[in-house]
Design a protein that fits this description.
The protein is mainly alpha-helical. Helix 1 (about 35-50) packs antiparallel against helix 8, helix 5 runs antiparallel to helix 6 (about 125-155) and helix 9 crosses helix 14 (about 365-390). It has a single domain, classed as Up-down Bundle (Growth Hormone, Chain: A). It has helices at about 35-50, 60-65, 70-90, 95-100, 100-120, 125-155, 165-190, 200-215, 240-260, 265-270, 280-300, 305-330, 330-360, 365-390, 395-420. It has 15 helices and no strands. It comes from Cryobacterium arcticum. It is a multi-pass membrane protein. It is found in: Cell membrane.
Length: about 425
């Protein structure tokens, strides 16, 4: 996938399928804009969808005040999103090459529009969880497809161009979108009327505009004359199982931290740090994801081994700083700084995980191997956050967050240090 990266073969979370690596034939334009214009329309649409996925993040504390549900309920709603992503990723995320990328993107956008309507019309906990599942289903089929579409639009518009530019743009739209959505939602919740309605209305309009935009963008997939038999996305573990699992461990810890900041960090800011501003809650998430996106660009010229070293240091220092603020109920600026540093480390570690896993795969099974990394990553996105929610049934959120930080740092070191051994790179 490449939900989190987009700077390597996949992207983001993303999905298991990656761009083919071949510049698509220009073929019939079958869109109403040029491939160059379509490149930017697709990138903006990608950013809007990813931004929408974090709209609820700064609003959870408002839901808690209104309905009185627990931190555990928030983690369940968050986990519902991740479940939707995983299910869709393996059932539909790889179908863009056969049914058409534009068509799959339109289906994904339609699901996000339905999700936004559900948030507005069904604001009870059951509705929130259902809306999150629907949103996850759309994200799962969109991330890899959007990445491939953006890269191919770029290569078609500029046949001699390096695909790196398209990969960077898609990666920035992907991770950057997460941060933009949380920040925009927080600002709207803070300064606009009806804070639990207005953010969804605004993004519902943006999603509708994105849908129209994709209708105008040319198709880039060369669909086969006879559609192949459907099968879910396959997952492969390469022969070097130990190294693959270490790479998976990096993906696990990276997603765990990003999951923390898109689920419980805003509740901690409003509770333990007693900052009631929803704009600040959105800023915390924005800083974390912006750092994750920019750090991947900053280290693209470094070797994977160096990326692991730099990422591990930043990840450990940043998450330890977050834990220190949690213990001392310190300054929110220090909490933001810790999130930025940890986010930068997470982005680099995920990029390195994809590079390590990709180096273990052949061209024939690279997508299946990367699918395995994304599966491990999404387990990391979900399991630790749910664990924190369960822990809050008996201990405070602050204590649960400190325990989370200690375990994730330990796991990061346990997976990164063996990969830094020279024997893995000789």
């Amino acid at each position: 996938m490449n939900t989190l990266s987009g700077l390597n073969a996949p992207s983001a979370p993303a999905t298991a399928a990656a761009p083919s690596g071949q510049a698509p034939s220009a073929g019939p334009r079958n869109g109403r804009v040029s491939h160059g214009t379509g490149f930017w329309i697709a990138a903006v649409a990608f950013l809007i969808v990813m931004a929408y996925s974090t709209v609820p993040t700064p609003l959870w504390s408002l839901y808690q005040v209104r309905d009185g549900f627990s931190t555990f309920a928030i983690t369940i709603a968050f986990a519902a999103y991740a479940v939707g992503v995983v299910v869709s990723l393996f059932l539909a995320g790889h179908l863009g090459d056969t049914v058409g990328r534009r068509r799959l993107l339109l289906v994904a956008l339609a699901l996000e529009i339905v999700s936004a309507v559900m948030f507005i019309a069904w604001p009870e906990l059951a509705g929130l969880i259902t809306a999150r599942v629907v949103s996850g289903l759309g994200i799962g089929m969109l991330t890899a497809t959007a990445t491939a579409h953006i890269v191919d639009l770029h290569l078609t518009a500029r046949s001699s161009a390096d695909p790196t530019r398209g990969q960077i743009v898609s990666g920035m739209a992907n991770l950057g979108g997460f941060g933009v959505g949380a920040l925009g939602s927080g600002l709207l919740a803070q300064f606009a009327p009806e804070p639990l309605v207005t953010p969804y209305v605004v993004f519902l309009v943006l999603l509708a505009l994105a849908f129209v935009g994709i209708l105008l963008v040319p198709e880039t997939a060369n669909r086969p004359a006879v559609a192949p038999r459907y099968r879910p996305q396959r997952v492969s573990v390469p022969a070097h199982t130990g190294r693959f699992l270490l790479a998976g461990g990096l993906a696990f810890v990276a997603f765990a931290v990003l999951g923390l900041f898109t689920s419980l960090a805003p509740s901690f800011v409003s509770g333990r740090l007693q900052i009631s501003s929803h704009a600040v809650a959105g800023l915390v998430v924005f800083g974390t994801f912006a750092a994750a996106a920019l750090s991947q660009v900053a280290v693209r010229s470094l070797t994977p081994r160096t990326q692991i070293l730099v990422g591990t240091v930043l990840f450990t220092v940043g998450l330890a700083g977050v834990a220190a603020v949690v213990v001392a109920a310190g300054n929110v600026l220090l909490f933001v700084l810790g999130g930025v540093v940890a986010g930068a480390g997470a982005g680099i570690l995920f990029k390195a995980a994809l590079a390590v896993a990709g180096s273990l795969a052949s061209s024939a099974n690279r997508g299946e191997v990367l699918a395995g990394i994304f599966l491990i990553g999404y387990v990391g996105l979900t399991l630790p956050v749910v664990g924190i929610g369960v822990a809050t049934l008996t201990v405070s959120l602050a204590a649960a967050l400190v325990g989370f930080a200690a375990m994730i740092i330990a796991l990061a070191l346990a997976t990164a240090l063996p990969l830094l051994a020279p024997r893995h790179w000789n």
